[in-house]
Design goal:
It is built from 22 helices and 24 strands. The chain is an alpha+beta fold. The longest helix has 25 residues, at about 540-565.
Length: about 650
């Protein structure tokens, strides 16, 4: 085979693979594909210098020797607001149309999988990053290359992030679980967990065997000039990615509800999991104007399907103590399968809920489980009562430490700060990935440390010594040293990680970042007014934060002295011709939009996404879009990219 023949065969293989994996329309029999694949593979072994990196044979890379490295997204991957019925959905639409009447909406299915961000540059797949915390995820590029519906090359030279969901079909899920059971391994709980676990295999050969699917749903950083999101997604699908079974542009709630019903009927016939549909404002300028809350875009919503209901019996009730001391009643159930998951426990929320529903041990009940929602009992089937059912008594003693409980009516709390459940759960959370990320400090080790009396509060972690750890079962010198190194490495953590690690009720990652961005290490002295002034903060969040600091102020101060968290870097604002000016960018420029935005903000500008009479400059590059035309119409000053660089250089 000559080099030219090899290239032609690679192109044929790519064409066949596209028809099979993207269009679900095989062009040749499997044995014909396999024969050509082996011929190409044989040539590549003999001529490694000629290998085409986009050849289907090159999708599986070498296994990783260690874990995945972290990688930052070029632009944030947001969460979504959820609505569960037509009333909630209409309320969301009313909020949109209050400021933007007569908008149109882009509607598509909500797939239940693992989110992934693909970064392409110069037409080639550069990186594949898991969602992570939305700002930073794990680099799984090697594994993503094994997924046949992920394009290794696209016909688009500019930098672009293409986002979507990695899915596992129900057929594949059942096949893998059968194999795991035969090998004595624990089966996956559901296709979403199976997809996420498969994507994070250290050996890409394992990922390749699991026949995952990539389904795009959005775009991050890009230089595209479309007016509507639907047009942008058309562009993405035309690059060669899988199209969803349904996607529409709608004008009214009635149209959207009709598609919702259509998808609800369709989901039982699909081989992948759907848990709802996503509705997005279609016009990109309106999206930019609507902006974001602390957690989610205001311009999109997940309209979830009704939860699947099943009947089962309550065998017993346990009481769990969380890290904030709240005692939660949990029903122990006769096992029941819900959407492929065996459910044996369900939350009973709180004691008011138990009394209102008159839930008893021995009752037949209806429960629901929807997506990530913890199974919940929604109805007691009193017609099945025999008279032997037992009432659930409100506990007066902590089930863990036996100290007296504080009964507040709706909630019952353990006030003992040294309660093992509170301490152990607090430390587990403190060490978790989204907090101080202390590698190796998992649940079992925390329980061991607590039982041996080595760790009674968070501060004790930083006083552990080698001789302490060597006393624990399963610890040898290397394992002990690795844990000590991980604890030491957590010192100097980012301010937001430190706040998040404290486990303050209602204060998660996003809220912690907002606090640090606004006040840095001064967070310990914040007032209610200062907290309420933070975008997205409500009274409940502010009160929770203040109460925690009031009770734990000395402990937090000691931890700050030990860990020395660092505040977000405040870039010095430079006086320039852009200081105090509102600026809009349009057109293709020499550097990415993100880089230019960051530069202008350092120079004192406020960079926005839409043009108004309050805009000072519209800075344009090649092929400027509608923003340029609107600026001319409104009489807003237009500035070329060259002039911008001149002024920035002078500064």
């Amino acid at each position: 085979m000559t080099k030219e023949e090899y290239k032609k065969k690679v192109e044929t293989l790519k064409k066949w693979a596209y028809a099979y994996y993207i269009e679900d329309n095989p062009l040749v029999a499997d044995e014909v594909y396999d024969k050509l694949y082996r011929e190409v593979e044989e040539y590549e072994k003999k001529h490694p210098e000629d290998i085409d990196p986009t050849s289907p044979t090159q999708r599986v890379g070498a296994p990783l020797k260690e874990g995945f490295k972290k990688a930052r997204h070029l632009s944030r991957m947001w969460s979504m607001e959820d609505v569960f019925d037509s009333r909630e959905f209409e309320e969301w639409m009313e909020r949109i149309e209050k400021n933007f009447p007569d908008e149109r909406y882009y509607v598509e299915p909500k797939f239940d999988g693992a989110s992934l961000n693909l970064v392409y540059e110069n037409g080639l797949l550069k990186e594949a990053i898991t969602r992570g915390d939305g700002v930073e995820g794990e680099d799984v590029t090697n594994n993503a290359r094994t997924i046949n519906s992920i394009r290794l090359e696209i016909e688009h030279e500019d930098l672009i992030e293409i986002r979507g969901e990695v899915l596992m079909t129900l057929r594949e899920f059942n096949r893998i679980n059968r194999e795991r059971i035969e090998k004595g391994q624990t089966p996956f709980a559901n296709p979403r967990n199976a997809a996420a676990g498969s994507l994070r295999q250290l050996d890409p050969h394992i990922t390749a065997k699991r026949n995952l699917i990539f389904q795009p749903w959005g775009v991050g950083v890009n230089s595209l000039k479309f007016e509507y999101l639907s047009e942008m997604m058309d562009f993405v699908y035309n690059l060669g990615f899988r199209k969803p079974p349904v996607r529409r542009v709608c004008k009214t709630a009635e149209e959207i509800e009709k598609i919702y019903d259509e998808l609800k009927e369709m989901r039982s016939n699909l081989d992948v999991m759907l848990d709802g549909m996503v509705v997005k404002v279609d016009r990109i300028a309106a999206q930019n104007a609507l902006g974001y809350t602390v957690k989610a875009p205001r311009w999109m919503v997940a309209y979830k399907f009704p939860a699947v209901e099943k009947q089962t019996r309550i065998k017993d009730v346990l009481f769990q103590v969380g890290r904030t001391g709240v005692v939660t009643p949990v029903a122990v159930l006769e096992p029941v399968e819900v959407e492929g998951v065996i459910v044996e426990r369900a939350t009973l929320n709180n004691f008011d809920y138990i009394e209102k529903m008159d839930i008893r041990i021995g009752d037949m009940v209806t429960l629901i489980r929807s997506g990530d929602v913890i199974p919940k009992i929604i109805k007691v089937l009193t017609q099945y009562r025999s008279g032997r059912e037992k009432r659930i008594e409100r506990p007066t003693k902590c089930p863990v430490c036996q100290s007296e409980l504080l009964d507040e009516g709706k909630l019952i709390k353990c006030q003992n700060l040294n309660c093992p459940a509170r301490v152990v759960n607090s430390i587990i959370y403190f060490a978790s990935k989204q907090c101080l990320d202390i590698d190796g400090l998992g649940e079992k080790i925390v329980e061991q440390l607590y039982e041996k009396g080595m760790v009674r509060e968070l501060e004790d972690l930083y006083h552990l010594k080698m001789e302490d750890l060597l006393k624990l079962e399963g610890f040898k010198h290397k394992k002990a040293q690795n844990l000590l190194n991980a604890i030491k490495k957590s010192k100097g953590a980012a301010c937001w990680r430190f706040i998040n690690a404290l486990g303050i009720e209602h204060i998660g990652e996003v809220a912690s970042k907002k606090i640090c961005q606004n006040y840095g290490l001064g967070f310990i002295d914040l007032t209610k007014e200062e907290l309420m002034a933070i975008d997205g903060f409500g009274e409940e969040m502010a009160e929770s934060f203040l109460e925690f600091m009031r009770v734990n102020r000395k402990k937090v101060q000691r931890l700050i002295e030990i860990i020395k968290p660092y505040p977000p870097e405040k870039e010095e604002k430079i006086q320039s011709p852009f200081t105090g000016k509102t600026v809009v960018l349009t057109g293709t420029m020499k550097k990415s939009r993100g880089e230019i935005k960051a530069m202008l903000e350092r120079l004192g500008a406020k960079v926005t996404g839409s043009v108004s009479r309050h805009t000072d400059y519209v800075i344009y590059g090649n092929d400027p879009g509608s923003k340029y035309d609107k600026a001319k119409k409104l009489g807003v000053e237009l500035m070329s990219e060259e002039r911008m660089w001149e002024l920035a250089g002078e500064t």
